[in-house]
Design brief:
Helices cover 41% and strands 17% of the residues. It is an alpha/beta fold. It has a single domain, classed as TIM Barrel, CATH 3.20.20.140. Helix 7 links the parallel strand 6 and strand 7.
């Protein structure tokens, strides 16, 4: 009973979502959270969650997609978040990777979406790239809107920063990059994070694990490999890791409970 807490399911990368879901269930990956990054993708995520029992979704505006978004979009994002299978608002956050980044716009949209989540009593899934200190400081400044918890998806920062995020109530998810032996930073971060704050993800169709190096698309079927690797790093059995991830996911995202 494996959990993929963060993936991007769509028709163009996988061919047949139905066949993908069938193969995931056969491999024991029976909870998939497909994540919105703009309004159209959030709508598609809702549709997939309505079609398949094992799929849940999130809705939100990703920081690198804001050129194509308006503040009016937030009204529908809020409506989507009220759906019974929408487990979180996301993915939202900050991303300074590209040279033309409009940081002020990212901050405005991030705060506006945290306000929605707070109003709806929802947790959030957070994306953060190349802006560790700014993300931590932003979350500290807006800690009052994080009372329902948050996930730092695909955590890529140092283990030394884990404590600061933990103090705010963070959960952390890791994907295929953590399975590479040379990926020392995520492996050390997993060692530093308590097992009751860890979750598994693929971020598929991206970030294939070591067994599928260079292959596209990655799929949620790689979750067992990611889980086994995480269990090895934490020094526990795979079954224990699966159970911990399950419990953590249900604690952070109450709508996942059946």
């Amino acid at each position: 009973m494996y959990t993929d807490i963060h993936c991007h399911l769509n028709l163009k990368d996988y061919g047949s979502v139905e066949e993908l879901v069938r193969s995931c269930l056969k491999d024991g990956v029976d909870r998939l959270v497909t994540v919105g990054f703009d309004l159209p993708s959030s709508r598609m995520c809702r549709d997939l969650a309505e079609w398949y029992d094992c799929i849940y979704f999130t809705a939100g505006l990703h920081p690198t997609e804001l050129k194509h978004c308006s503040f009016d979009d937030l009204h529908e994002i809020e409506q989507l978040c009220n759906h019974p299978k929408c487990i979180a608002l996301g993915e939202i956050g900050l991303d300074y990777h590209y040279p033309d980044t409009d940081r002020e716009r990212q901050h405005h949209f991030f705060k506006a979406q945290l306000e929605i989540a707070d109003r709806l009593d929802m947790p959030v899934q957070i994306h953060s790239r190349d802006c560790a200190e700014d993300t931590l400081n932003f979350l500290k400044d807006n800690a009052s809107m994080l009372r329902h918890g948050f996930l730092l998806h695909c955590y890529s920062y140092s283990p030394e920063m884990v404590g600061g995020f933990l103090s705010l109530g963070a959960y952390f998810s890791f994907g295929g990059t953590s399975t590479y032996r040379r990926s020392k930073k995520p492996r050390r971060a997993i060692e530093a994070i308590p097992i009751d704050r860890l979750l598994t993800e693929t971020d598929s169709p991206y970030l294939s694990p070591s067994s599928a190096f260079g292959q596209f698309p990655n799929t949620p079927r790689s979750i067992p490999e990611i889980t086994r690797n995480m269990a090895q790093i934490k020094g526990v059995g795979e079954k224990e890791m699966c159970s911990a991830v399950r419990d953590n996911a249900e604690r952070l995202f109450p709508k996942l409970k059946k």
